[in-house]
Specification:
single chain, three-stranded antiparallel beta sheet, 20 helices, 49% helix
Length: 495
Protein backbone atom coordinates (compact mmCIF):
# COMPACT_ATOMS: atom_id res chain seq x y z
CA UNK A 1 0.00 0.00 0.00
CA UNK A 2 0.91 3.68 -0.28
CA UNK A 3 2.25 4.15 3.27
CA UNK A 4 4.44 1.08 2.93
CA UNK A 5 5.73 2.44 -0.38
CA UNK A 6 6.55 5.77 1.24
CA UNK A 7 8.47 4.01 4.01
CA UNK A 8 10.40 2.01 1.44
CA UNK A 9 11.13 5.11 -0.65
CA UNK A 10 12.19 7.05 2.44
CA UNK A 11 14.67 4.35 3.45
CA UNK A 12 16.20 4.31 -0.04
CA UNK A 13 16.27 8.11 -0.19
CA UNK A 14 17.97 8.47 3.20
CA UNK A 15 20.50 5.84 2.18
CA UNK A 16 21.23 7.81 -1.00
CA UNK A 17 21.56 11.07 0.98
CA UNK A 18 24.10 9.44 3.30
CA UNK A 19 26.07 8.27 0.27
CA UNK A 20 26.08 11.81 -1.14
CA UNK A 21 27.16 13.18 2.23
CA UNK A 22 29.98 10.66 2.50
CA UNK A 23 31.21 11.52 -1.02
CA UNK A 24 31.12 15.24 -0.21
CA UNK A 25 33.13 14.76 3.01
CA UNK A 26 35.81 12.96 1.00
CA UNK A 27 35.93 15.82 -1.51
CA UNK A 28 34.46 18.92 0.20
CA UNK A 29 35.72 21.33 -2.48
CA UNK A 30 33.31 19.86 -5.06
CA UNK A 31 30.08 21.56 -3.95
CA UNK A 32 28.68 21.50 -7.48
CA UNK A 33 28.73 17.71 -7.64
CA UNK A 34 26.91 17.52 -4.32
CA UNK A 35 24.22 19.86 -5.65
CA UNK A 36 23.83 17.82 -8.85
CA UNK A 37 23.58 14.57 -6.88
CA UNK A 38 21.03 16.01 -4.46
CA UNK A 39 18.91 17.39 -7.30
CA UNK A 40 18.96 14.03 -9.03
CA UNK A 41 18.01 12.19 -5.82
CA UNK A 42 15.14 14.58 -5.07
CA UNK A 43 13.85 14.35 -8.63
CA UNK A 44 13.86 10.55 -8.58
CA UNK A 45 12.17 10.50 -5.18
CA UNK A 46 9.40 12.76 -6.47
CA UNK A 47 8.78 10.54 -9.49
CA UNK A 48 8.70 7.41 -7.31
CA UNK A 49 6.25 9.02 -4.87
CA UNK A 50 3.90 9.97 -7.73
CA UNK A 51 4.09 6.44 -9.14
CA UNK A 52 3.26 4.90 -5.75
CA UNK A 53 0.43 7.34 -5.08
CA UNK A 54 -1.13 6.94 -8.55
CA UNK A 55 -1.08 3.16 -8.34
CA UNK A 56 -2.56 3.26 -4.86
CA UNK A 57 -5.46 5.43 -6.04
CA UNK A 58 -6.10 3.01 -8.89
CA UNK A 59 -6.14 0.16 -6.39
CA UNK A 60 -8.71 2.00 -4.26
CA UNK A 61 -10.92 2.29 -7.33
CA UNK A 62 -10.57 -1.43 -8.05
CA UNK A 63 -11.49 -2.37 -4.45
CA UNK A 64 -14.47 -0.05 -4.18
CA UNK A 65 -17.77 -1.93 -3.63
CA UNK A 66 -19.70 0.75 -5.51
CA UNK A 67 -17.32 0.43 -8.44
CA UNK A 68 -18.03 -3.28 -8.44
CA UNK A 69 -21.76 -2.55 -8.70
CA UNK A 70 -21.35 -0.44 -11.87
CA UNK A 71 -18.12 -1.31 -13.68
CA UNK A 72 -16.20 -4.41 -14.69
CA UNK A 73 -12.40 -4.58 -14.66
CA UNK A 74 -11.26 -5.26 -18.21
CA UNK A 75 -7.49 -5.10 -17.98
CA UNK A 76 -4.52 -3.44 -16.29
CA UNK A 77 -2.23 -1.32 -18.47
CA UNK A 78 0.81 0.88 -18.01
CA UNK A 79 0.44 4.64 -18.37
CA UNK A 80 3.37 6.96 -19.10
CA UNK A 81 2.79 10.50 -17.91
CA UNK A 82 5.30 13.27 -18.57
CA UNK A 83 5.42 15.80 -15.70
CA UNK A 84 7.71 18.75 -15.01
CA UNK A 85 9.46 16.59 -12.40
CA UNK A 86 10.03 13.60 -14.68
CA UNK A 87 8.25 10.85 -16.59
CA UNK A 88 6.08 8.61 -14.37
CA UNK A 89 5.31 5.04 -15.46
CA UNK A 90 2.48 3.51 -13.43
CA UNK A 91 -0.22 0.86 -13.67
CA UNK A 92 -3.84 1.81 -14.22
CA UNK A 93 -7.06 -0.08 -14.85
CA UNK A 94 -9.45 -0.10 -17.81
CA UNK A 95 -13.09 -0.45 -16.75
CA UNK A 96 -16.27 -1.18 -18.71
CA UNK A 97 -19.84 -0.20 -17.90
CA UNK A 98 -21.93 -3.21 -16.82
CA UNK A 99 -24.95 -1.87 -18.73
CA UNK A 100 -22.96 -1.54 -21.93
CA UNK A 101 -19.76 -3.54 -22.14
CA UNK A 102 -18.73 -1.49 -25.20
CA UNK A 103 -18.32 1.66 -23.05
CA UNK A 104 -14.71 1.51 -21.88
CA UNK A 105 -13.06 4.09 -19.66
CA UNK A 106 -10.07 4.78 -17.46
CA UNK A 107 -11.68 6.25 -14.36
CA UNK A 108 -8.28 7.33 -13.05
CA UNK A 109 -7.63 9.43 -16.20
CA UNK A 110 -10.95 11.18 -15.86
CA UNK A 111 -10.29 11.95 -12.20
CA UNK A 112 -7.04 13.65 -13.22
CA UNK A 113 -8.79 15.54 -16.04
CA UNK A 114 -6.67 13.78 -18.66
CA UNK A 115 -7.96 13.51 -22.20
CA UNK A 116 -7.60 10.33 -24.23
CA UNK A 117 -3.97 9.68 -25.16
CA UNK A 118 -2.78 12.76 -23.22
CA UNK A 119 0.84 12.19 -22.21
CA UNK A 120 1.78 15.47 -20.51
CA UNK A 121 0.50 17.17 -17.37
CA UNK A 122 -0.28 20.91 -17.45
CA UNK A 123 2.89 21.79 -15.51
CA UNK A 124 5.03 20.04 -18.15
CA UNK A 125 3.08 21.74 -20.95
CA UNK A 126 3.63 25.10 -19.25
CA UNK A 127 7.41 24.54 -19.30
CA UNK A 128 7.33 23.71 -23.00
CA UNK A 129 5.17 26.73 -23.92
CA UNK A 130 7.26 29.18 -21.90
CA UNK A 131 10.52 28.06 -23.51
CA UNK A 132 9.08 27.80 -27.03
CA UNK A 133 7.64 31.30 -26.74
CA UNK A 134 11.07 32.67 -25.85
CA UNK A 135 13.51 30.66 -27.95
CA UNK A 136 12.57 27.78 -30.27
CA UNK A 137 10.47 24.65 -30.63
CA UNK A 138 13.56 22.47 -30.15
CA UNK A 139 14.55 24.12 -26.87
CA UNK A 140 10.92 24.00 -25.76
CA UNK A 141 10.99 20.22 -26.15
CA UNK A 142 14.09 19.97 -23.96
CA UNK A 143 12.51 22.07 -21.19
CA UNK A 144 9.68 19.65 -20.44
CA UNK A 145 11.48 18.36 -17.30
CA UNK A 146 15.04 17.91 -15.95
CA UNK A 147 15.78 14.56 -17.61
CA UNK A 148 13.39 14.00 -20.53
CA UNK A 149 12.52 15.86 -23.68
CA UNK A 150 9.92 15.68 -26.45
CA UNK A 151 10.35 16.03 -30.18
CA UNK A 152 10.25 19.24 -32.18
CA UNK A 153 7.17 17.90 -33.99
CA UNK A 154 5.40 17.29 -30.66
CA UNK A 155 6.06 20.91 -29.62
CA UNK A 156 4.79 22.16 -32.97
CA UNK A 157 1.61 20.09 -32.69
CA UNK A 158 1.09 21.33 -29.13
CA UNK A 159 1.38 24.99 -30.17
CA UNK A 160 -0.78 24.53 -33.28
CA UNK A 161 -3.57 23.09 -31.12
CA UNK A 162 -3.51 25.90 -28.53
CA UNK A 163 -6.75 27.61 -27.58
CA UNK A 164 -6.45 30.98 -25.84
CA UNK A 165 -8.84 32.45 -23.27
CA UNK A 166 -9.77 36.13 -23.25
CA UNK A 167 -6.80 38.47 -23.64
CA UNK A 168 -7.59 40.12 -20.30
CA UNK A 169 -9.43 39.54 -17.04
CA UNK A 170 -12.00 42.22 -16.22
CA UNK A 171 -10.96 44.10 -13.05
CA UNK A 172 -13.19 44.83 -10.08
CA UNK A 173 -12.72 48.59 -10.44
CA UNK A 174 -11.92 50.82 -13.41
CA UNK A 175 -8.90 53.13 -13.36
CA UNK A 176 -9.11 56.90 -13.80
CA UNK A 177 -6.36 58.45 -15.97
CA UNK A 178 -6.06 61.69 -17.93
CA UNK A 179 -4.58 60.25 -21.11
CA UNK A 180 -4.38 56.88 -22.80
CA UNK A 181 -2.00 55.91 -25.60
CA UNK A 182 -2.30 53.24 -28.27
CA UNK A 183 0.78 52.38 -30.34
CA UNK A 184 0.45 50.13 -33.38
CA UNK A 185 2.86 48.68 -35.92
CA UNK A 186 3.63 45.46 -37.76
CA UNK A 187 6.34 42.88 -38.33
CA UNK A 188 7.04 41.14 -41.63
CA UNK A 189 7.84 37.42 -41.50
CA UNK A 190 8.08 34.58 -44.03
CA UNK A 191 5.90 31.54 -44.64
CA UNK A 192 7.20 28.10 -45.58
CA UNK A 193 3.70 27.25 -46.78
CA UNK A 194 0.08 28.29 -46.31
CA UNK A 195 -1.65 25.03 -45.34
CA UNK A 196 0.76 22.37 -46.63
CA UNK A 197 4.22 22.33 -48.19
CA UNK A 198 4.40 23.45 -51.83
CA UNK A 199 1.21 25.55 -51.85
CA UNK A 200 2.89 28.99 -52.05
CA UNK A 201 2.06 31.07 -55.13
CA UNK A 202 4.81 32.25 -57.47
CA UNK A 203 4.81 35.87 -58.70
CA UNK A 204 5.44 36.94 -62.30
CA UNK A 205 9.04 37.70 -61.37
CA UNK A 206 9.50 34.11 -60.18
CA UNK A 207 9.55 34.94 -56.45
CA UNK A 208 7.49 33.10 -53.86
CA UNK A 209 4.61 35.04 -52.34
CA UNK A 210 5.53 34.09 -48.80
CA UNK A 211 5.31 37.38 -46.91
CA UNK A 212 3.02 37.61 -43.91
CA UNK A 213 2.25 40.51 -41.56
CA UNK A 214 2.02 40.14 -37.79
CA UNK A 215 0.29 43.08 -36.09
CA UNK A 216 1.08 44.52 -32.69
CA UNK A 217 -1.06 46.97 -30.72
CA UNK A 218 -0.33 47.97 -27.15
CA UNK A 219 -2.20 50.27 -24.78
CA UNK A 220 -0.47 52.22 -21.98
CA UNK A 221 -1.12 55.06 -19.55
CA UNK A 222 2.10 57.05 -19.86
CA UNK A 223 5.85 56.97 -19.28
CA UNK A 224 7.92 56.96 -16.09
CA UNK A 225 11.65 56.70 -15.22
CA UNK A 226 12.95 53.17 -14.59
CA UNK A 227 14.49 54.53 -11.35
CA UNK A 228 14.17 57.94 -9.63
CA UNK A 229 17.36 59.36 -11.19
CA UNK A 230 17.46 57.19 -14.29
CA UNK A 231 17.47 58.63 -17.82
CA UNK A 232 15.84 55.46 -19.09
CA UNK A 233 12.06 55.26 -19.16
CA UNK A 234 9.39 52.57 -19.28
CA UNK A 235 5.73 52.47 -20.21
CA UNK A 236 3.09 52.38 -17.47
CA UNK A 237 0.26 49.83 -17.49
CA UNK A 238 1.15 48.27 -20.84
CA UNK A 239 -1.13 45.66 -22.38
CA UNK A 240 -0.39 43.91 -25.70
CA UNK A 241 -2.39 42.53 -28.60
CA UNK A 242 -0.33 40.52 -31.13
CA UNK A 243 -2.17 38.87 -33.98
CA UNK A 244 -1.65 37.51 -37.46
CA UNK A 245 -5.11 38.21 -38.83
CA UNK A 246 -6.86 40.01 -41.67
CA UNK A 247 -9.92 40.71 -39.53
CA UNK A 248 -8.93 44.22 -38.44
CA UNK A 249 -12.39 45.09 -37.13
CA UNK A 250 -12.43 42.25 -34.60
CA UNK A 251 -8.90 43.13 -33.48
CA UNK A 252 -9.76 46.79 -32.86
CA UNK A 253 -13.04 45.83 -31.19
CA UNK A 254 -11.02 43.71 -28.75
CA UNK A 255 -8.71 46.65 -28.03
CA UNK A 256 -11.70 48.89 -27.35
CA UNK A 257 -13.28 46.22 -25.11
CA UNK A 258 -10.07 46.18 -23.04
CA UNK A 259 -9.98 49.99 -22.73
CA UNK A 260 -13.65 50.14 -21.80
CA UNK A 261 -13.24 47.38 -19.20
CA UNK A 262 -10.12 48.81 -17.51
CA UNK A 263 -10.59 52.58 -17.67
CA UNK A 264 -13.28 55.06 -16.76
CA UNK A 265 -13.57 56.73 -20.17
CA UNK A 266 -15.59 59.61 -18.73
CA UNK A 267 -12.40 60.71 -16.91
CA UNK A 268 -10.04 60.31 -19.91
CA UNK A 269 -9.27 63.62 -21.65
CA UNK A 270 -7.73 62.13 -24.80
CA UNK A 271 -6.91 58.77 -26.32
CA UNK A 272 -4.02 59.02 -28.78
CA UNK A 273 -3.23 56.47 -31.48
CA UNK A 274 0.48 56.62 -32.39
CA UNK A 275 1.23 54.89 -35.68
CA UNK A 276 2.78 55.15 -39.14
CA UNK A 277 -0.49 55.56 -41.02
CA UNK A 278 -0.92 52.01 -42.35
CA UNK A 279 -4.43 51.29 -43.70
CA UNK A 280 -5.15 48.55 -41.14
CA UNK A 281 -4.15 50.94 -38.35
CA UNK A 282 -6.30 53.79 -39.63
CA UNK A 283 -9.25 51.40 -39.77
CA UNK A 284 -9.16 51.40 -35.97
CA UNK A 285 -10.19 55.06 -35.88
CA UNK A 286 -13.69 54.11 -36.97
CA UNK A 287 -13.87 51.32 -34.35
CA UNK A 288 -12.54 53.29 -31.37
CA UNK A 289 -14.70 56.20 -30.25
CA UNK A 290 -12.94 59.50 -29.48
CA UNK A 291 -9.44 58.42 -30.57
CA UNK A 292 -7.09 60.95 -32.20
CA UNK A 293 -4.52 59.65 -34.67
CA UNK A 294 -0.95 60.93 -34.24
CA UNK A 295 1.87 60.22 -36.69
CA UNK A 296 4.65 58.48 -34.80
CA UNK A 297 7.88 60.41 -34.35
CA UNK A 298 10.08 57.77 -35.98
CA UNK A 299 8.34 57.89 -39.36
CA UNK A 300 7.90 61.68 -39.31
CA UNK A 301 11.63 62.16 -38.66
CA UNK A 302 12.47 59.50 -41.25
CA UNK A 303 10.62 61.28 -44.06
CA UNK A 304 11.84 64.73 -43.04
CA UNK A 305 15.40 63.39 -43.25
CA UNK A 306 14.67 62.00 -46.70
CA UNK A 307 13.43 65.43 -47.82
CA UNK A 308 16.51 67.28 -46.57
CA UNK A 309 19.30 64.73 -46.97
CA UNK A 310 20.65 66.47 -50.08
CA UNK A 311 20.90 69.90 -48.41
CA UNK A 312 24.41 69.28 -47.02
CA UNK A 313 25.32 71.80 -44.30
CA UNK A 314 21.83 73.39 -44.27
CA UNK A 315 19.98 70.16 -43.43
CA UNK A 316 19.15 71.17 -39.89
CA UNK A 317 17.72 74.56 -40.87
CA UNK A 318 15.69 72.94 -43.66
CA UNK A 319 14.14 70.38 -41.27
CA UNK A 320 13.28 73.10 -38.73
CA UNK A 321 11.56 75.10 -41.46
CA UNK A 322 9.52 72.08 -42.55
CA UNK A 323 8.56 71.29 -38.95
CA UNK A 324 7.39 74.87 -38.38
CA UNK A 325 5.29 74.68 -41.53
CA UNK A 326 3.67 71.43 -40.36
CA UNK A 327 3.12 72.73 -36.82
CA UNK A 328 1.62 76.15 -37.49
CA UNK A 329 1.01 76.62 -41.20
CA UNK A 330 -0.99 74.92 -43.95
CA UNK A 331 -0.37 72.43 -46.74
CA UNK A 332 0.26 75.16 -49.32
CA UNK A 333 3.08 76.62 -47.22
CA UNK A 334 4.56 73.15 -46.81
CA UNK A 335 4.43 72.53 -50.58
CA UNK A 336 6.11 75.91 -51.30
CA UNK A 337 9.06 74.86 -49.14
CA UNK A 338 9.10 71.45 -50.83
CA UNK A 339 9.30 73.07 -54.26
CA UNK A 340 12.31 75.09 -53.16
CA UNK A 341 14.02 71.89 -52.02
CA UNK A 342 13.28 70.26 -55.37
CA UNK A 343 14.86 73.22 -57.10
CA UNK A 344 18.14 72.54 -55.32
CA UNK A 345 18.77 69.25 -57.15
CA UNK A 346 18.55 67.73 -60.61
CA UNK A 347 19.13 64.15 -59.43
CA UNK A 348 16.07 62.07 -60.37
CA UNK A 349 16.45 59.71 -57.40
CA UNK A 350 16.59 62.64 -55.00
CA UNK A 351 13.59 64.27 -56.66
CA UNK A 352 11.62 61.03 -56.36
CA UNK A 353 12.61 60.65 -52.70
CA UNK A 354 11.55 64.22 -51.84
CA UNK A 355 8.26 63.90 -53.71
CA UNK A 356 7.29 60.59 -52.11
CA UNK A 357 8.27 61.80 -48.63
CA UNK A 358 6.29 65.03 -49.00
CA UNK A 359 3.26 63.06 -50.20
CA UNK A 360 3.47 60.74 -47.16
CA UNK A 361 3.41 63.75 -44.82
CA UNK A 362 0.51 65.32 -46.73
CA UNK A 363 -1.45 62.04 -46.52
CA UNK A 364 -0.98 62.14 -42.73
CA UNK A 365 -1.10 65.93 -42.37
CA UNK A 366 -3.40 66.25 -39.36
CA UNK A 367 -1.63 63.42 -37.54
CA UNK A 368 1.79 65.01 -38.20
CA UNK A 369 0.51 68.39 -36.99
CA UNK A 370 -0.74 66.83 -33.74
CA UNK A 371 2.65 65.18 -33.22
CA UNK A 372 4.49 68.53 -33.36
CA UNK A 373 1.84 70.71 -31.75
CA UNK A 374 1.00 68.71 -28.58
CA UNK A 375 4.37 67.58 -27.30
CA UNK A 376 3.31 68.26 -23.71
CA UNK A 377 0.79 65.39 -23.68
CA UNK A 378 1.96 63.12 -26.52
CA UNK A 379 4.95 60.84 -25.95
CA UNK A 380 7.30 59.61 -28.63
CA UNK A 381 6.13 56.35 -30.17
CA UNK A 382 8.15 53.27 -29.17
CA UNK A 383 6.49 50.90 -31.64
CA UNK A 384 9.65 50.12 -33.61
CA UNK A 385 11.43 48.88 -30.48
CA UNK A 386 8.40 46.89 -29.38
CA UNK A 387 8.08 45.27 -32.81
CA UNK A 388 11.63 43.97 -32.45
CA UNK A 389 11.47 42.79 -28.83
CA UNK A 390 7.95 41.36 -28.87
CA UNK A 391 7.76 39.95 -32.41
CA UNK A 392 10.87 40.15 -34.62
CA UNK A 393 13.36 38.73 -32.11
CA UNK A 394 11.42 35.44 -32.08
CA UNK A 395 9.60 35.40 -35.39
CA UNK A 396 11.57 37.11 -38.17
CA UNK A 397 15.07 38.31 -37.23
CA UNK A 398 16.65 34.92 -37.90
CA UNK A 399 15.98 33.03 -41.14
CA UNK A 400 12.69 31.51 -39.97
CA UNK A 401 9.83 30.15 -42.00
CA UNK A 402 6.35 29.52 -40.61
CA UNK A 403 3.06 27.94 -41.51
CA UNK A 404 0.03 30.20 -41.41
CA UNK A 405 -1.31 28.49 -38.28
CA UNK A 406 2.11 28.40 -36.60
CA UNK A 407 2.80 32.12 -36.91
CA UNK A 408 -0.72 33.00 -35.77
CA UNK A 409 -0.39 30.87 -32.63
CA UNK A 410 3.14 32.12 -31.91
CA UNK A 411 1.98 35.74 -32.15
CA UNK A 412 -0.64 35.07 -29.49
CA UNK A 413 1.89 33.15 -27.41
CA UNK A 414 4.21 36.17 -27.49
CA UNK A 415 1.25 38.35 -26.51
CA UNK A 416 0.60 36.01 -23.57
CA UNK A 417 4.27 36.19 -22.53
CA UNK A 418 4.54 39.99 -22.63
CA UNK A 419 1.24 40.45 -20.83
CA UNK A 420 2.90 38.41 -18.04
CA UNK A 421 0.15 35.82 -17.95
CA UNK A 422 0.77 32.45 -16.34
CA UNK A 423 1.80 29.68 -18.74
CA UNK A 424 0.40 27.17 -16.25
CA UNK A 425 -2.96 28.94 -16.55
CA UNK A 426 -2.74 28.61 -20.34
CA UNK A 427 -1.80 24.92 -20.11
CA UNK A 428 -4.71 24.18 -17.78
CA UNK A 429 -7.07 26.02 -20.12
CA UNK A 430 -6.33 23.40 -22.81
CA UNK A 431 -7.96 20.72 -20.64
CA UNK A 432 -11.12 22.36 -19.40
CA UNK A 433 -13.63 20.10 -17.66
CA UNK A 434 -16.12 20.38 -20.49
CA UNK A 435 -13.48 18.94 -22.86
CA UNK A 436 -13.24 15.71 -20.86
CA UNK A 437 -15.79 13.04 -21.70
CA UNK A 438 -17.57 11.76 -18.61
CA UNK A 439 -18.87 8.25 -18.11
CA UNK A 440 -22.66 8.30 -18.45
CA UNK A 441 -24.47 7.58 -15.22
CA UNK A 442 -21.35 7.78 -13.05
CA UNK A 443 -21.45 11.46 -12.06
CA UNK A 444 -22.86 10.76 -8.58
CA UNK A 445 -20.80 7.65 -7.79
CA UNK A 446 -19.34 8.64 -4.39
CA UNK A 447 -17.58 6.14 -2.17
CA UNK A 448 -18.78 6.12 1.44
CA UNK A 449 -16.94 5.50 4.70
CA UNK A 450 -18.73 2.12 4.84
CA UNK A 451 -17.08 1.18 1.52
CA UNK A 452 -13.67 2.09 2.88
CA UNK A 453 -14.10 0.14 6.11
CA UNK A 454 -15.33 -2.90 4.17
CA UNK A 455 -12.36 -2.67 1.81
CA UNK A 456 -9.80 -2.37 4.62
CA UNK A 457 -11.08 -4.91 7.16
CA UNK A 458 -13.55 -7.53 6.08
CA UNK A 459 -16.27 -8.19 8.62
CA UNK A 460 -15.51 -5.14 10.76
CA UNK A 461 -18.60 -3.12 11.76
CA UNK A 462 -18.58 0.62 11.16
CA UNK A 463 -21.18 3.22 12.08
CA UNK A 464 -22.91 4.33 8.89
CA UNK A 465 -23.29 7.94 9.86
CA UNK A 466 -21.88 11.28 8.78
CA UNK A 467 -18.11 11.62 9.07
CA UNK A 468 -18.13 14.60 11.45
CA UNK A 469 -20.33 12.96 14.07
CA UNK A 470 -17.83 10.19 14.85
CA UNK A 471 -14.59 11.83 13.84
CA UNK A 472 -12.99 11.24 17.27
CA UNK A 473 -13.85 7.54 17.26
CA UNK A 474 -12.59 7.20 13.69
CA UNK A 475 -9.27 8.88 14.49
CA UNK A 476 -8.58 6.22 17.15
CA UNK A 477 -9.77 3.11 15.32
CA UNK A 478 -8.82 3.63 11.66
CA UNK A 479 -5.32 3.43 10.25
CA UNK A 480 -3.58 6.38 8.59
CA UNK A 481 -4.04 4.62 5.25
CA UNK A 482 -7.81 4.40 5.77
CA UNK A 483 -8.05 8.08 6.76
CA UNK A 484 -6.35 9.04 3.52
CA UNK A 485 -8.77 6.87 1.58
CA UNK A 486 -11.69 8.47 3.38
CA UNK A 487 -10.48 11.97 2.57
CA UNK A 488 -10.01 10.96 -1.04
CA UNK A 489 -13.43 9.33 -1.41
CA UNK A 490 -15.36 12.12 0.31
CA UNK A 491 -13.76 14.85 -1.82
CA UNK A 492 -13.74 13.19 -5.23
CA UNK A 493 -16.23 11.52 -7.51
CA UNK A 494 -15.60 8.67 -9.90
CA UNK A 495 -16.57 10.20 -13.21
Amino acid sequence: MYDDSISHLSENFIRRILEIQEAFLKQPDDVAMMVYNLSDALQKLGVDIMRAFFENIDQWLCNSPRRKDRFYIEQHTVKQLITSLGTVDFKKTLFSDKKSRSDMLYIFDQMLGLEQHQRMTPDAIANVLEEAAGTSYRKGGSRVNPIDDISLTAVKDLIHSLEFPENFVIPMQKKAVDYLYIDADEDHAHLQFQEKKGDLEISESGRKKNGVITKIIYVYEGVEPVAPKSKRHRLVGTHYFCRCTEDNNSLWDEVYAYIDAFYDLSKVKKVYLNADGGPWIKSGLSRLHGVEYVLDEFHLSKYLLKMTGHMMDTQEEARIELCNAIRSKNKEDFMDITQRHLGCTSNEKVIKRITESAQYILDNWTAAKRRLKHRDSIYGCSAEGHVYHVLSSRMSTLAMGWSKKGIAKMAQLREWKYNKRSFLELAKYQHKEDNVKKAAGAEDLVLSSHDIATTERAGRSVYEVELGKYSEAISHTWSLQTKKQLGFYLNHRIF
